Amino acid sequence: MRLDLRALFACLITSAVAMRPVPAQQAALPNWTIMVFMNGDNNLEPDALVNFRQMAAVGGNQNVNVVVQFDRIMKYAHTQPDWAQTLRFVVRKGTKPLPADAVQDIGEADMGDPVVLSDFVKWSKANYPAQHYMLVIWDHGEGWRLFLTTLLNKQRAAVRSRSLPLVDSAQAQIAAAATLRHGFGVADKNGVSAPLASAPSGGYRSASNDETNNDLLYDREIEDGLKDALQGTKLDVLAFDACLMSMVETGYAMRDSAKVLLASEELVPGLGWPYDDVLSAIEVQNPADGAAMAKIIVSAYKNHYQTIAPDTTFAAIDLSKIQNIADRVSSLADVLTPELSTNLQGIVSARDATATYAPGYQFYHVDVREFMEQLKGRTSSAPVLNAINAAESEIDSAIIANYAGTERQGPYGSFGLAIYFPATNANHLNDPFAEGGYEKDNTYYPVEFVQNYHWADFLHAYWNMVP
User: Fold this and answer.
1) Is residue 17 part of a domain?
2) What is the pLDDT of residues 59-72, one digit of tens each?
3) pLDDT tens digits for 366-420?
4) Looking at the structure, do residues 449 and 309 belong to the same domain, yes or no?
5) How many CB atoms lie within 10 A of CB 121?
6) 3: in domain
7) Are residue 94 and residue 136 in the same domain, yes or no?
C-alpha cells in the first residue's frame, strides 16, 4: 500500500487546527454573569461577610459567573487578615472574602460615586461576558430619592452602631450580625445629627453611615451611571438587595437600563437575600431570561422569609410596562385633583386606610394599587373609577412575580409597586429623605417621574388641603 504523503500532511494540518484553542470571544458564552455591587463600608459589614460566604458555599459554574465588588470598613466586623479597601472577586465554591482570593484590588473606592458603579459594570462585562446580565446593588436603600451608601459630606442621616468582636467563621458572623441594632437620625446643615422621633431598631437595611468615602448615591446617580456603562443596552435584571426600592419612581428611572426590576416595597432584613439558596436554584434551573431569573429569586426569598419574617415583601417588575404605568398613574392624578374639592374626605380616608411601609421610620411609601382599591369604595366618579381600572390593569400586567408576607397583606396590599404619598403636608415637610425631590422645579438630582408626570401636582394640591 502506497503512503499518500500529501493526504497525511493535510490530515495533520487539520488535526492541529482542531486542537488549537478557540479564542474566548468565539467560545460559547456562559448563560449569566451576576454582578454584585456590595457596599459593606458601613454598619452592614457583618451582613456583607455573611452574604459573601453564602455565595461561596455554592459559587459560580460553567453557566454562571458570580462577580463581586466588595468594599469594607474593618470596623463592624473583622477577618484574618483584616482589610478595608475595595476588592473584586470571582466567586467560586470555597472562595474566601480575603485579599488573597481577590482577582483585583482597586484600593479605596467610593461606592457612592456613580462612576465607580459604571466602572464595575463595564469591567464585569468586558472580563466576564455572558449571554445575560444581572446587577445586584447591595446596601441600604430608601426608595425613590436616595440609595444611601454613605452619609457624611452630603449627610442626611446618621447611624450609631456598636462594633462587633473579631469573628471569622460564617456561623460566628451570623450570630454577631443578629445582635446588631441601630438607630438613625437626621443631620442639620452643619452636619450635626439628632435622633428621629421614632428611631428604628433591628437589623434592617434602612439607613447607612460610611465613615470612609463621605458620599451618598442617589437614584438619579444610579440611573446615570448605568446609562454610561450600558451605552444603550439593557441589563436583563437590575436587582436591589436593599430596602424600599420597588417603586413606580425607581422603576421609571431605571426603564432604559434594565428589562426587569427586582426589589422590595418594604424593608429588607439585614442579612438580605439567601444567596446560597438563590445560587443553588439558579444552578439547577439555568434560567433562560430575566423573567425566569427573577421568579427564581422571588421564590427563594419567599421560602426563606415567609415564616421567620412575615413583614417582608419582594417583587419582579417588567420594566417594558413601567412607562404605561406612569402614564396611567398620571392620568389618575389628573382626575383626582378636581375631586379634592368635591370628595376630599373620600381621598383622605382612602389614604388613611392604606398602610405605610416601614411604619414609624418616616418613610411615606404606600402600595399604589392598594390605594386605588381603597379609593374605589369611596368615590362614585366615573372618570376616577375608569382611571383606577386602567392603572390597575397596567400594574397587574407588569408583575412577573410577587411575594408578600402575611403581615404585609391586608391594608398594605403589597401588589408589587409602591409610590410616594405622605398622608399630610406636615409629613412631607418633615420627611428627612425628600430633600425637595418632589418639587417640580427641583434640580438637585431630579427625579424623572416627578418631572415628567402629574402625580406630584396632585400631591401638592392634596397637601394644600390636608395640612
Assistant:
1) no
2) 999 999 999 999 99
3) 999 999 999 999 999 999 999 999 999 999 999 999 999 999 999 999 999 999 9
4) no
5) 22
6) no
7) yes
Inter-residue contact 216 to 112 (CB < 8 Å): yes
Check whether residue 213 and residue 286 sit in a common domain.
yes
Same domain assignment for residues 195 and 214? yes
Q: Read off the pLDDT of residues 436-455 as tens digits, 9 standing for 90 and up.
A: 889 999 888 888 999 999 99
Query: Which pLDDT tens digit goes with each residue over 154-181?
Result: 332 322 222 223 334 434 333 333 332 2
Is 10 part of any domain? Answer: no
Which pLDDT does position 211 carry in this prediction?
56
| Overall domain count for the chain | 2
Asked if residue 129 has a cis previous peptide bond (ω within 30° of 0), the answer is no
> For 272-307, what is each residue's pLDDT tens digit?
999 999 999 999 999 999 999 999 999 999 999 999
**Are 240 and 172 contained in the same domain?**
yes
User: Where a domain ends, among 320, 354, 376?
Assistant: 320
pTM of the entire structure?
0.84
Tell me the residue type at 171: Q
Give domain status of residue 436, yes or no. yes
Residue 306 sits in the same domain as residue 348: no
Give the residues across from 316 on adjacent strands: 262, 401
What pLDDT sits at residue 432? 77
344 and 443 inside one domain: yes
- Where in the sequence is the domain holding 382, given as residue range(s)? 322-398+408-465
Kindly report the CATH number assigned to the domain that includes residue 281: 3.40.50.11970
How far, in Å, CA of 126 to CA of 47, rounded? 29
